[in-house]
From TrEMBL:
Residue stretches spanning the membrane: 279-304
Name used for this protein in its record: non-specific serine/threonine protein kinase
Similarity comment text for this entry: In the N-terminal section; belongs to the leguminous lectin family. In the C-terminal section; belongs to the protein kinase superfamily. Ser/Thr protein kinase family.
Organism: Salvia divinorum (Maria pastora)
Segment forming the signal sequence: 1-20
GO cellular component: plasma membrane
Domain Protein kinase: 342-622
Length: 674
């Protein structure tokens, strides 16, 4: 019984893993590297740097006092690619790069430059200089467990195992190449005193690697034509040699014979797997307990059944029921009764996902909010399961708590704690006869939202991006404590972009969406921070982020203008009169501006935000003029391409799309399952 259950779990997990990812093509071109702009785009390790418009894989210096012998370094693209799930399905990539290896001095122990695929960002191992090319060292070389790496070496010094001091080779977890080809017969001198440029192509697909090389006449010349014949062709099962998740980049070394190792242009195309947002909920951090494994298998069962369109299959509900720690299953008739048959008068809100009703469970005398999903389709099941699995596992005093669920007549219902004070926007934009939210309450709300974000971003076992932070998604409990809600809305809209516009109008969200989202089409922690900044300004100023004021299109621009003019506090909600704390208002306004920085990387992190709000850290310094938004230089951790690159399958589309509204996590996805 136990073993058959285990087998079922394995089968289901496999199904989940296989369906939880989709193939994407990464395709970018880099040149004119810039130390400042590309600081986050490339990981520079050991003696590597970006200098003179090139990746200096070992450092370059004309200064004779700078030692450039016995160095080792690596430069990796700051993106970990998930290359494969199933070893029967080989990954594929193509790359080409322009290099310049320039000899300096002469000695016996030399170095070289290599294109590498490595599993981690641990950097070149200690003592990987000289013959070890920044790849391995005397104690680890050839060990396929410790060196999950594949490299194409351009070697300029002869070791006992090398054919000569001018060759190209394919290296699998060792500096001893499995195949090496002298370059002299091809009229190529890698380290010629004239400082020649060489273009190298590495194509991998269908279990075979092809390597080509050609000389380029000068640094600025056009890329030479790729030779007809590969210099190395080798049957290679990449899955046996590199890690599921790997980085691409370069490694190099120098010995007592020194040289400059630089990469001046780099094109990289990688077919890789990315988590399908639909499946992110299955991602778990490390340390899964048996209960969680069981939960996973049940979720797997749910998805499995859904795929089979077995909606009426009692297994689905059965699986839900058996989820450990699952919130209560409610009887439909109880919810119907509680909401007075979903009476219009009990309706709290409506969106693309469906409707929310207020209710009271007579037995417990408990106030609840019931979210009824409008669609009966499979899409509805997605919404339901995605919301259920995420929210069920999140526990924080500033998140709206999910109490239970119900599945009846193909209709999905989620039951939440009722928030007697409704959503924040309802309190901010009230008529003149209603008393506005007081200053201390506003401060408390900002603080609560920040602590919820901190939990989602950093404290929860998997990182969660809310993606739809705005005043109407911030609920207020009876004491006006902020409670973040509506993860499900995000999910629900993923595949029905229009419904959002119909329900609220895109303008309703204007001002909450970080500028890079229009380009990337996806949300990040930084875009959550941007939305948080918009909420902070909204709360302090009592105006919508999209409010036109003082001749500005967006609230943030007006506040920035007042800041520059030294009149920041004029932004404070006039309805407060003098009833606010000036130093706190200034702190929040500066924080709001800092979070609205057009460059994602410049925005404060949630941790810092929490400290600023608590007053343990000073308010951020904000420049007098709002920096211009620059794309792609202002891109996130891996943007920053310098050429015509694009992420070909990313769902950019027109304006911001449903992609933006789905959620994502980063850690421990399938690693913990395989
Ligand atoms: C690659 O190697 C793995 C492990 O040896 C094997 O399971 C897989 O089938 C191989 N892939 C191909 C395409 O030969
Ligand atoms: C690499 O190039 C080959 C030949 O041009 C092409 O067939 C293949 O699809 C490319 N692979 C990737 C990952 O771009
Ligand atoms: C990179 O790709 C671009 C555009 O396809 C091409 O013009 C350039 O020559 C390539 N560079 C290298 C180093 O192959
Ligand atoms: C390089 O070798 C030449 C002769 O082979 C010698 O004169 C010169 O001093 C050497 N240079 C260095 C830096 O060792
Ligand atoms: C080689 O690198 C490993 C770490 O990768 C390190 O533990 C070991 O000490 C190094 N060996 C030498 C000879 O430095
Ligand atoms: C490879 O390295 C690992 C970890 O250091 C070690 O346990 C193993 O014995 C090494 N394998 C070989 C073949 O040396
Ligand atoms: C990658 O982008 C370049 C333009 O930069 C384009 O010419 C090329 O076809 C693209 N390759 C793939 C595989 O999409």
């Amino acid at each position: 019984m136990v073993s058959s259950a285990a087998a079922v779990i394995v089968v289901l997990l496999a199904a989940v893993v296989a369906e939880g990812t989709k193939l994407k093509t990464f395709n970018k071109s880099y040149k004119d590297f810039d130390a400042v702009r590309d600081k986050d785009a490339f990981i520079q390790q050991g003696d590597a740097s970006i200098h003179l418009k090139a990746l200096q894989v070992t450092k370059d210096s004309a200064n004779p006092s700078v030692i450039i012998s016995d160095l080792s370094g690596r430069v990796l693209l700051n993106k970990r690619f998930r290359l494969w799930e199933d070893p029967a399905r080989q990954p594929s990539f193509n790359t080409s790069f322009l290099i310049n290896i320039f000899p300096k001095g002469n000695g016996s122990e030399g170095g070289g430059l290599a294109f590498v695929i490595v599993p981690d960002r641990s950097g070149p191992p200690p003592r990987s200089n000289g013959r070890y090319l920044g790849l391995t060292n005397a104690s680890t070389d050839s060990n396929s467990t410790t060196n999950k790496l594949v490299a194409v070496e351009l070697d300029t010094s002869k070791q006992d195992f090398d054919p000569d001091d001018n060759h190209i080779g394919l290296n699998l977890h060792s500096v001893r190449s499995v195949v090496a080809k002298p370059l002299a017969p091809h009229n190529i001198a890698l380290a010629s005193p004239a400082g020649k440029f060489h273009n190298v192509w590495v194509d991998y697909g269908g279990g075979r690697i092809h390597i080509y090389i050609a000389e380029q006449v000068g640094q600025d010349a056009a890329t030479p034509r790729k030779p007809q014949e590969a210099i190395i062709t080798y049957d290679l099962n990449l899955t046996e040699h590199v890690s599921h998740e790997s980085y691409f980049g370069f490694a190099a070394s120098t010995g007592d014979m020194t040289q400059l190792n630089c990469v001046l242009r780099w094109n990289l195309t990688v077919n890789h797997l990315e988590k399908d947002p639909n499946w992110v909920v299955i991602g778990l951090g490390t340390g899964i307990g048996a209960a969680v494994v069981a939960a996973l298998s049940a979720v797997g069962l749910v998805y499995y059944c859904r795929k089979r369109r077995a909606i009426s299959n009692p297994n689905l509900v059965g699986a839900l029921r058996s989820l450990p720690g699952t919130p209560q299953e409610f009887e439909f008739k109880d919810l119907k009764k509680a909401t007075n048959s979903f009476d219009e008068r009990n309706k709290l809100g409506q969106g693309g996902y469906g409707e929310v009703f207020r209710g009271n469970l007579a037995k417990e005398n408990l106030d609840i909010a019931v979210k009824r999903f409008s669609r009966e389709s499979l899409q509805g099941q997605d919404d339901f399961l995605a919301e259920l699995t995420i929210i069920n596992r999140l526990r924080h005093r500033h998140l709206v708590k999910l109490l239970g669920w119900c599945h009846k007549y193909g209709k999905l219902l989620l039951v939440y704690e009722y928030m007697p004070n409704g959503s924040l926007d309802k309190h901010l934009f009230v008529g003149p006869d209603v008393e506005p939210l007081g200053w201390h309450v506003r401060y408390k709300i900002v603080s609560g939202v920040a602590s919820a974000l901190q939990y989602l971003h950093n404290e929860y076992e998997q990182r969660v991006v809310h993606r739809d932070l705005k005043a109407s998604n911030i609920m207020l409990d009876s004491n006006f404590n902020a409670r973040l809600g509506d993860f499900g809305l995000a999910r629900a809209l993923d595949n029905e972009k229009t419904s959002y516009a119909e329900a609220e109008g895109v303008l309703g969200t204007m001002g909450y969406i970080a500028p890079e989202c229009f380009h990337m089409g996806k949300a990040t922690q930084q875009s959550d921070v941007y939305a948080f900044g918009a909420v902070v300004l909204e709360l302090v100023c009592g105006r919508r982020p999209g409010a036109k004021i003082g001749g500005f299109q967006l609230l943030v621009d007006w506040v920035w203008y007042l800041h520059r003019d030294g009149r920041l506090l004029e932004a404070v909600d006039p309805r407060l009169g003098d009833d606010y704390v000036g130093s706190e208002a200034e702190r929040l306004l500066l924080l709001g501006l800092a979070c609205s920085h057009p460059a994602a990387a410049q925005r404060p992190k949630t941790q810092a935000i929490v400290q600023i709000i608590s007053g343990t850290v000073a308010a951020p310094a904000v420049p007098p003029f709002k920096p211009a938004f620059v794309w792609p230089a202002a891109a996130g951790p891996m943007g920053l391409e310098t050429d015509s690159g694009s992420e070909t399958t990313s769902n950019l589309g027109s304006g911001w799309s449903g992609q933006y509204l789905s959620r994502e996590s980063y850690t421990g996805y399938t690693d913990s399952l395989v």
